[in-house]
Amino acid sequence: MVAQHTPCTLHFSILPPELACKLFYTMVDLARGGWKRNKWWLFERMVESPHRTAFFVRKDLGRERAEWTEAAQYWYNGTPTDIPPAFPPEMEEACYIIERVVNTEMRKRKRFSMEWRPSSDTPEPLWQANVAASNCYEGGKETVGWHSDQLTYLGPYPTIASLSLGTRRTFSLRDVVPAEEQEKRHARTYNISLPHNSLVIMHATTQERFKHSIPPQSAVDIYKPILPRSAFNISSSHSSSSSPPKSKPASKVVGEDVKIEPSNIRINITFRFYRPDFRPQSTPRCKCGIPMILRPDMKNTIAREKTRKPASRSGGASSVGGSGIDGRGSSDEGGGLNVDGEQEMKYWWTCYAYAQKEGKGCGFWKVMDLHAEGRGWKEGA
Ligand SMILES: O=C(O)CCC(=O)C(=O)O
Ligand SMILES: [Fe+2]
């Protein structure tokens, strides 16, 4: 049903049970060790997200690693951050398994012309995670509000693999109805229950056509790990923040040590592929001099503005962008269909200063032009 009604697929028991359990413990301990509450962009105002979050960069990336380290601060709303940690070993192991599933699913699906493609001489894999963002929700009151993920480094039509560990929570997806269709249909909300060790793959168009959230719940089902911490030589969570972990061989585990601690925590890990043609150095800057963010034109505003001249969106100095409304040439003939006959999505680069300067950004925006900006797939690249 998920695949039938949304651009997502849902996969149960994705990891070997022991690995899922161990990864849960590892992430819970890391979260307790100092993950931050992020600021979130929500309906034109900033709110502090009522859950904790962390950002990881894959370790064997070589030169690329430094660049994505720079990008990490945008995960934290533009706040400069320490160098993000590498994937812990269990996360690396999980990622390897997840990548195979994602690539199998992607090969079954239609591809979009603006979507990332590997070069013609190395056609596989289609998707390889190079960063991961993780969330920790403790109890039913910790949530994330409606949003679609920023595309600044993911580029158009991204694929994001989202792993759930621990307590079962509802993942809500709601489609965004373009303005011209609002009289014909209403948005629909799909509530998907995500148990421990399940994977949601948000395929291409999920970020363009839908918003997602983890809504609050008045009660959550307690998660009982299949193995105690001591089975993995991990010390009790109670002592983990105050004293160094005590290693114990599993065979010596007796009495209290084998007790399984029930938990009300859900850990989410979103594995992401940050595109080489959207690396931080290539992000355009606004009049404030800071890198802009990339967002899809979910409501089809650009196409509608194009038919209403002159181009002006919010009036005054804030409509200074506009450069991309005209002058594309590639896609707007044929009723917005591109050369592959698909209804082409448009994207805005917009000023991100509101996140850092209490809403006092320059308001600059421009329409993204993939080819004019030197991005996208090139034959033999
Ligand atoms: O916890 C989840 O499943 C969703 C998290 C999310 O939407 C995000 O990190 O962008
Ligand atoms: Fe998200």
UniProtKB/TrEMBL annotation:
Q: Which GO terms describe its biological process?
A: DNA alkylation repair
| Gene3D superfamilies, alphabetized | Alpha-ketoglutarate-dependent dioxygenase AlkB-like
Signal peptide bounds:
none
Among PROSITE patterns, the record links this protein to: FE2OG_OXY
Q: GO: which molecular function terms?
A: dioxygenase activity
Biased composition (Low complexity) is annotated at 235-252
Q: Region Disordered: which residues? A: 234-255, 305-337
Q: Which residue numbers delimit the Fe2OG dioxygenase domain?
A: 128-275
| Amino acid composition bias (Gly residues), ranges on this chain | 318-337
Q: Please list every transmembrane segment annotated in the UniProt record, as residue ranges.
A: none
Q: Name one Pfam family in it.
A: 2OG-FeII_Oxy_2
Protein name in UniProt: Fe2OG dioxygenase domain-containing protein
Species this chain originates from:
Pleurotus eryngii (Boletus of the steppes)
- What is the phylogenetic placement of the source species in the record? Eukaryota, Fungi, Dikarya, Basidiomycota, Agaricomycotina
